[in-house]
Amino acid sequence: MAAGGNELTSADLGPISSPRLLLRTPNSDRADLPAGPNYTCVGKELARFLIAAGVILVGIDGPSIESAADGGLAVHRLLLGAGVVIVEELDLRGVAPGFYQLACLPLRIPGADGAPARAVLTS
Q1: 7-95 — its CATH code?
Q2: What does the domain layout of the chain look like in residue ranges?
Q3: Contact 15/49 with Cβ under 8 angstroms?
């Protein structure tokens, strides 16, 4: 994780080898993850890096892809504006680094811009 706080940067990642990326962060090691600003998230610099790398889906094990302390939706807007799908609140406890198949089955909610989903990871 970045030395400067809870925002991940491109320096925190190795080479991107897939257009779909799941981020297992220190959030996975916390059983009582708060909805406040103390969770690991994606910073704007990393969002731009992921877009440039051709990532089309990014998932994270925190309550949001971006910091609650940021006050805006800059990371959401960057990623969604580039067509990147965001999956939040993944339970990645016990998931080792590697390549997996991900199936996300969202609820159909008319007029919504997001939905709860059942996410299933298989090897």
Answers
A1: 3.50.30.50
A2: 7-95
A3: no
Instruction: Count other C-beta atoms under 10 Å from residue 74's C-beta.
Output: 14
pTM of the model: 0.88
Strand spans (E) along 54-113: 57-60, 85-87, 101-106
Sorted by sequence, the CB contacts under 8 Å of residue 87 that are 6+ apart come out as 22, 57, 58, 59, 60, 104, 117, 119
Mean pLDDT of 39-55: 95
**DSSP-assigned states of every residue in 12-70:** GS----SSEEEE--GGGG-TT--SSS-S-EE-HHHHHHHHHTT--EEEESSS-SS-GGG
Give first-to-last CA distance, the chain, whole Å: 26
Predicted confidence (pLDDT) at residue 5 exceeds the cutoff of 70: no
